[in-house]
TrEMBL record:
Top-level taxonomic group: Bacteria
Gene: ftsY
Sorted UniProt keywords: Cell cycle, Cell division, Cell membrane, Cytoplasm, GTP-binding, Hydrolase, Membrane, Nucleotide-binding, Receptor
EC assignment: 3.6.5.4
Cellular location(s): Cell membrane; Cytoplasm
Covered range of the whole protein: 97 to 401 of 409
Name used for this protein in its record: Signal recognition particle receptor FtsY
Organism: Ligilactobacillus salitolerans
Oligomer status and interactors: Part of the signal recognition particle protein translocation system, which is composed of SRP and FtsY.
Similarity comment: family membership: Belongs to the GTP-binding SRP family. FtsY subfamily.
Membrane topology: Peripheral membrane protein
Gene Ontology molecular functions: GTP binding; GTPase activity; signal recognition particle binding
Sequence positions that bind GTP: 111-118, 193-197, 257-260
Length: 305
């Protein structure tokens, strides 16, 4: 698909091109080849462990198969990259979960400022609205007036409803009203923005716990997803952030934003391998259509073509 393709352009020119170059110069598989492969993978942000794992496994396989052909080696690399992502036994985690029919689905969004949380909510609201669903937003990042206003702008531009209160209101009070409204007015989906102040972990933990409690009082099976937004351009820092968020709340999946802005798309694999969290959505630009569900195979093949 074209948009996906465009969004991965930088990664393809960086990560993909380097591996392709490595293969182009390939005469036979020797230790230099594996060293170079490892280095390329590390540079692409797949993480040290993944890089070593891939080249180790490949080393064994190539020897076993006695692979000499370039094509065979490149296929094996692609296969390994996909395998890392599609962690055995976790296949069902890869897609977004929805409520049983007749109940509103609730997605909670967490993440620090600037990673693209609000934009993602706006894009997703647009997508569901286009599909004919009744969408409600809840502006629970009440810490910053700007955050409320920004979400409100998105609500207006994609034409969905929003529940908001003045800055500094209790986020739990906002979500309380939003859940009530979603239930009584038969909304299909409620997207909840939250403040991601990691500076005060205890507060954040309590705040998110309270938001969840309020949701569950009305909708015991919700939220169906707690999605952590991470900025792909921040590389290994995104991993550190994810680890910190995992300490404060249960996370069900990752939204990896700004994948269009990095040449190091390998961060997707590092997240999977180190955090065992699926990337459920990827941001490929600033416009409302620039959000996609994540497909490991499409992603990896997209890097190499
Ligand atoms: P928040 O503070 O986490 O809510 O972040 P915002 O949603 O305000 O996004 C911060 C900036 O990143 C804005 O300028 C967005 O337009 C931009 N942004 C968000 N997602 C993407 C993306 O997928 N690609 C690109 N290129 N920019 C993005």
């Amino acid at each position: 698909e074209q948009r996906y393709d465009q969004g991965l352009k930088k990664s393809r020119q960086g990560f993909g091109a380097k591996i392709n170059a490595l293969l182009a110069n390939f005469r036979h598989v020797d230790e230099d080849f594996f060293d170079d492969l490892e280095e390329t993978l590390i540079e692409a942000d797949v993480g040290f462990d993944v890089a070593v794992k891939i080249s180790d496994e490949l080393r064994d396989e190539v020897k076993l198969r006695n692979a000499k052909a370039k094509k065979e080696v490149s296929d094996a690399i692609v296969e390994k990259l996909v395998d890392i992502y599609e962690e055995e036994g976790h296949e069902e985690d890869n897609s977004l979960h929805f409520a049983t029919a007749g109940q509103p689905t609730v997605f909670l969004f967490v993440g620090v400022n600037g990673v693209g949380k609000t934009t993602t909510i706006g894009k997703l609201a647009h997508k569901y609205q286009q599909e004919g669903k009744k969408v409600l937003l809840a502006a629970c990042d009440t810490f910053r007036a700007g955050a409320i206003e920004q979400l409100n702008e998105w609500a207006k531009s994609v034409n969905v409803d929003i529940v908001k209160k003045p800055a500094q209101s209790d986020p739990a009070a906002v979500v309380f009203d939003a859940v009530k409204k979603a239930k009584t007015e038969n909304y299909d989906i409620l997207l909840v923005d939250t403040a991601g102040r990691l500076q005060n972990k205890v507060n954040l933990m309590n705040e998110l716990a309270k938001i969840k409690r309020v949701i569950q009082r009305e909708l015991p099976e919700s939220p169906q997803e707690v999605l952590l937004a991470l900025d792909a351009t921040t590389g290994q820092n995104a991993l550190t952030q994810a680890k910190q968020f995992k300490d404060v709340t249960e996370v069900s999946g990752i939204v990896l934003t700004k994948l269009d802005g990095t040449a190091r798309g390998g961060i997707v694999l590092a997240i999977r391998n180190e955090l065992h969290l699926p990337v459920k959505l990827v941001g490929l630009g600033e416009q409302m259509d620039d959000l996609r569900t994540f497909d490991a195979e499409k992603f990896v093949y997209g890097l190499f073509k």
